[in-house]
Amino acid sequence: MFKAKAGFQLSFARKAGFSLGDYACNLYWQSVSLFLMFYYTDALGLPGATAGLIYMVASIFDGITDPLMGAIADRTRTRWGRFRPYILIGAIPVGLSFCFLYWAPAATGLGLTAVVLASHLVFRTAYTFVSVPYSSLTARMTRNSTERSSLAGFRMVAATLAGMTVSFLTKPMVDQFGGGDLATGFFYAAVVLALVATAIFPIVFLVTREPPEPPGEPVRLRLADYWRATARNKAFWIVMIAISLGAMSSTALSKSLLYYMKYIAEDEEAARYALSIKAALGVAIIPAWVFATRFIGKQVAWLTAAGWGLACAAALLVFDVQTALAVTVFYMAIHVASLGVSTTYWSMVPDTVEYGEWASGARTESFVFGLAMFFQKVALGLAAAFFGWALDLVGYVPNVQQAPETLEGLKLIVVVFPVIGLGGSAIAMLFYPLRRGVHEKIVDELAQRNPTPAS
């Protein structure tokens, strides 16, 4: 059985310092996930299909740039490591682009759509420049699978705290800064979030460390080498299929709550508290999922989370969920499944790096993470587009009383997306090759092939 070696275990302070980066990243990501679609439809007045199309195009573009950024970061060699410099350099550009994302142009029609799409593309590019190298540090900092589960837990807690921040403070900031103008309020709220995130990234750069480069490792790989190495990585592809399908569920849940509260529960103010409570739930639930990955294994933990989510989706068809309290309880319950999938996902991806190295002989950390983010973002983009089209399909019109059939359609969206996503991801995960104990054996074999200097 694999035992932690020097340089594989991380101190609490280093884990906590590293996870600050996830807090900063998720000030951006949670805002985009929770509020941007609503901003497009209810602040800018874009049709649901158009808003979904913009989100899809930007996500696919973002996904395409992720593996390219991963290849660039993998080929980088500096005195500060491969990945840390990008976190420092990209802090200000991503903050500025986030503010631009919520800037309402003085345009209408096709001109409005073009400017909104351009701002979204600029933000996604800047975000990729920081987020891909940052995520890649998970595989770089330790090869211990148990430590990675712990690190994923720290990251998820930080992301949850960011979700709480964004959920609880966005609407008060919008009301305070906008004075009734949603577009203006969202812009200044974005400025505040960007200032906080920009101040955090230099701290992450200072706190984190990367181990020395292994002797004899090639500095530069051709792009074809990256693809060849990844093609043989069965574990990676199974995880990508599972998370891509799971994105259907997470998208519907993150984007539908505001609409559900506003038009079905008829209590828009309660959405702020529901989002905050849902986010706060992660602080208690994520450690439980981390423990589950250690106790029952990552594959079984994923299957357990998917099963729980499917049960919650089915319950929505049985019970009358129309009051703000009932809606909050439902979203909290099914969020447990989302947290389980996300926590397990981020602990699985770095394990696939070693599987790919074992299968192909080439270690491509950042490219794997970049490609992983490609699939995740393309899936999220497609799911957002489907969500937007579904809104139009059920007859949604912003800021008016919805027809009864539209309300039923909104409820059905919240059921169908998770059933397809979580059910499909569970089927894919049945074929995951890194069952308990397999990864540890692979790491031991790799250590015998290429001993690395102690950090």
What can you tell me about this protein's structure?
By secondary structure, the chain is an all-alpha fold. It has a single domain, classed as MFS general substrate transporter like domains (Growth Hormone, Chain: A), CATH 1.20.1250. It has 15 helices and no strands.
Q: Which features would summarize this protein structure in a list?
A:
single chain, 455 residues, mainly alpha, Growth Hormone, Chain: A, 80% helix, globular
In short:
The chain is mainly α.
Within the CATH hierarchy, at the fold level, what is the topology?
Answer: Growth Hormone, Chain: A
Radius of gyration computed on alpha carbons: 21 Å
- Could you estimate the helical fraction of the residues in percent? over 70%
Q: At the first level of CATH, what is the class? A: Mainly Alpha
**Secondary structure tally, helices:** 15
SSE sequence, one letter per element: HHHHHHHHHHHHHHH
**Average pLDDT over all residues:** 87
Query: What is the number of E strands?
Result: 0
Number of domains: 1
* β-sheet strand percentage: under 5%
In angstroms, what separates the terminal alpha carbons?
Answer: 22 Å
CATH superfamily: MFS general substrate transporter like domains
